[in-house]
Write a structure and sequence with these properties.
Largest sheet: 9 strands, parallel
Structural class: alpha/beta
Order of helices and strands: EHEHEHHEHHEHHEHEHHEEHEEHHH
Shape: globular
Number of strands: 11
Distance between the termini: 44 Å
CATH architecture: Alpha-Beta Barrel
Strand content: 5-15%
């Protein structure tokens, strides 16, 4: 078996990030090199840049069969203390559906997001949003928390510190973030959520099991967080049993960014493929992107999962939530939204609306 390519040609990568639209060719090269058929783009909005969602809509327009879009929320009105106006969150969701987005991406729950906007996810600010998403039965890809090591300066990796992903006593705690999610799930038991990065419970499989048992409509994705692979390699038998038991609740993902080199994309996807498909003992290869750390950091032990489980992880668990095909793009609605986002970005920055990424995408979609 080629250690960097899956044996399953219809694989869907559920968790990928798109940068500038100028990186379209690069992302396509990565997609082909890692052997995935389709991609779920998670579109975190950057209101001041007018970016995040527009480039994901662009990719859906360019290749409507290949790209699903999970749209992030725009909190510009809240973050700017009313300097600019944005639609209420529930109206944003309705617009996403009208545009042809396939689900919602949430970063609200990562500690750095909480630093920027100190509003718990169970706050009334989000109440109508949760009701709307639940009523529409939209899938959510949600990043909640970070590795436990990030709350201890002695154990926070250098690459995390370089991105200000180290937290102290002034920051929200990991348990507080979990408690807020529990409150949301208690109120909205029909939400369909895929928690990214194994919900950062890879060091505590019994707790992960209790969580999945308590919430039958949630799932985990396998985007590294390289600590996830190290944690789940400590007791391979227990991990394999967990994957067999929850075979319908686990989704393949890589967290690839379009600005990676093709080789870095192959390393990132290949690590996950090899971990799932083989019983090899191996390390992160030299030359992998820096977020995966150094080869000396730890050893990964493959799970050698059965093909029927791999088929679910690689494809059917995703399509059961997001559909067999990406939803068609409503081009006119997407153009209108991109122009709206361009005006918001101009209101938050010195960049004229017409020079924002959102405006560039609107122009491209209109051609």
């Amino acid at each position: 078996m080629n250690e960097w390519t899956s044996r399953f040609p219809d694989t869907i990568d559920s968790h990928v990030h798109m940068g500038d639209i100028e990186q379209e060719a690069e992302l396509e090269q990565i997609r082909q090199a890692i052997g995935v058929d389709r991609i779920g783009l998670v579109a975190i909005q950057n209101p001041a840049a007018g970016s995040g969602l527009p480039q994901a809509l662009y990719m859906k327009a360019r290749q409507p069969r290949r790209y699903y879009v999970f749209a992030g929320l725009n909190h510009a009105a809240q973050l700017s203390a009313g300097q600019v106006q944005t639609a209420p969150l529930e109206q944003q969701v309705e617009r996403f559906v009208d545009m042809g987005c396939d689900g919602i991406k949430m970063i609200e729950g990562k500690p750095t997001s909480r630093q920027r906007m100190d509003i718990p996810v169970d706050d009334p600010y989000f109440a109508a949003f949760w009701r709307t998403v639940e009523a529409l039965d939209l899938p959510i890809v949600w990043h909640v928390n970070d590795p436990e090591e990030f709350w201890d300066p002695a154990t926070t990796p250098v690459w995390a510190l370089e991105r200000n992903w180290g937290y102290g006593p002034e920051d929200v705690t990991k348990e507080q973030l979990y408690a807020e999610v529990d409150a949301v799930l208690q109120r909205h038991q029909d939400l369909r959520i895929v928690f990214a990065h194994f919900y950062f419970l890879s060091a505590d499989l019994p707790r992960a099991q209790r969580f999945l048992d308590a919430h039958p409509r949630v799932a985990f994705d396998l985007t590294p967080g390289i600590e996830m692979l190290y944690n789940l390699s400590r007791d391979v038998e227990a991990t394999r049993d967990f994957f067999l038991r929850y075979a319908d609740r686990i989704l393949f993902g890589t967290d690839i960014f379009s600005d990676l080199s093709v080789r870095e994309g192959q390393y990132r996807a290949g690590i996950v493929y090899r971990w799932l498909e083989s019983d090899d003992m191996f390390r992160v290869p030299a030359g992998a992107d820096f977020l995966l750390g150094q080869p000396a950091d730890g050893e990964i032990h493959g799970l050698a999962l059965p093909d029927e489980v791999l088929t679910r992880i690689y494809r059917s668990n995703f399509t059961a939530r997001a559909g067999d095909e990406p939803r068609p793009l409503n081009v006119d609605a997407a153009i209108e939204e991109c122009r709206r986002l361009a005006e918001i970005a101009a209101g938050l920055s010195a960049t004229p609306a017409g020079q924002t990424l959102a405006a560039r995408v609107a122009t491209s979609l209109a051609e």
